[in-house]
Amino acid sequence: MPRPKTRTDQDVLEMALKLIHQAGPEALTFASLAEACGLSTATLVQRFKSKAGLKQSTLLHAWNRLDEKTATLAATAPKTAKGAVELLVALSHDYGGIEAYAEGLLVLREDLRDPVLRARGASWKAALSQALDACFSDIPQAPKEIGLLIASQWQGSLLWWSFSPDDDVERYVEAHLERFIVAILPSAAQV
């Protein structure tokens, strides 16, 4: 009879994700995770098979969390230009300060290196773009694929903020997205 798990895989992956965000992807080892979660290295190897498998499982867990958060925000965001900005500002909240953002870029590097993780990113891009498109569905002058346009502007605003992180990231993103919407869609000036 197998022993009961003392920690679920979800709990272990949460701890693994915390290690990655604290010290970078290279800091995630079976030994460091064993110390963090209290399970033996052998147990972790049995569950995740290899360091690459552990890293991929951890980052897929992060994608699952982002998918859930995006779906929740999309379901509750007003279907307006302002709702689109609110959705993206809420997603920006997790970036925190400049150090957290910089560490997040190391995680993105791992996503880009792995075809499975890259596919998850492409899937999220499609879901986010669709959710943002829905926010503009009642504006006839909205350009085709406005969701992807505003998502791209959002990502660009995060990058530009990172070079001069003097302002709060959410305030910075909100101001830049509002200006962008007014520039491409003047009829939405009440953003």
From TrEMBL:
It comes from Rhizobium mayense. It comes from the Bacteria. Pfam families: TetR_N. PROSITE patterns: HTH_TETR_2. The keyword Zinc-finger does not apply. Transmembrane segments: none annotated. The keyword Transcription regulation applies. InterPro entries: Homeodomain-like_sf (IPR009057), HTH-type_TetR-like_transc_reg (IPR050109), HTH_TetR (IPR001647). Residues 29-48 bind DNA. Residues 6-66 form the HTH tetR-type domain. This is TetR family transcriptional regulator. Keywords: DNA-binding, Transcription, Transcription regulation.
